[in-house]
Amino acid sequence: MRGDERDQDGMFSYVSLEQRVPQDHPLRAVRKLTDTVLRTLSPEFDALYADSGRPSIAPEYILRALLLQVFYSVRSERLLVEQIDYNLLFRWFVGLGMDDAVWNHAVFSKNRDRLLTSDVAQRFFAEVNKQAKRFMSDEHFTVDGTLIQAWASQKSFRLKDGSDDGDGTDFRGQSRSNKTHESTTDPDARLYKKSYGKESKLSYLGHALVENRNGLIAAAMVTHADGYAERDAALLMLAEKQEGRSRRITVGADKAYDTKDFVSTVRELSVTPHVTKNDKGRTSNLDRRTTRQPGYAISLSRRWLIEKDSDG
Fold this sequence. Notes:
Helix content is 40%, strand content 15%. The chain is α/β, with parallel strands linked by helices and 312 residues long.
């Protein structure tokens, strides 16, 4: 028997957002962990805001919304706010009620800027790490970088002196570089390709330091895209990891990290470099003192963990 199609004219709903989200949905565990971390950060949130004036968007809402943007690869904050408005799962995770008004995307972006220019984002990440500490190794790590494509078109990459002719759509045969050109819509993006034979794109580089037990991210950062950023970022993350520690740790990495400066500097940080040897047509900066140890082969065998995180 064919069912009847009903007009959507109901004004009230007796099913709550909590009831609509399945009990086994993966976001439930994430929400529980996130709420625990946000409660510990509440005093720091209080210090960021004045006691009087127009209320801002609650920082808890902003951080939960940004997590959704990462989890579901929402490409802009305009679309993120739109999704929160009509997506019941997103509303539930952020903490909004069924009838709560959603913010203007420009207001959201302004509040996000204010929140993330403080050290709150790093504190949030550090608190999440504390919650996961029992699952993480504190001795063996892997580092790598990944290309993050900027949300800017190639035609926005124009001469810095403004002397471009046309609208930027026809750039065939032109010599374009980061020294002479920049994006008019995202000036921090850089024209970059990570490997030979690939197309250059306006990009950033994302960097992650992953522990080798379960592949959980221990540190992360984003930088301009250039040929030195991966190694420089790795040194910064390792220096922070070793601050106040005397115990030696290991770090695995691909052959792009097999340079004299990187290998010598990590050793000064009490870090043993378990880097893939780059000895094709050159001499590797690692010798048998490192590569003969069983731990070296083990570190290389765990590199798939960071490749998994980068692909995600």
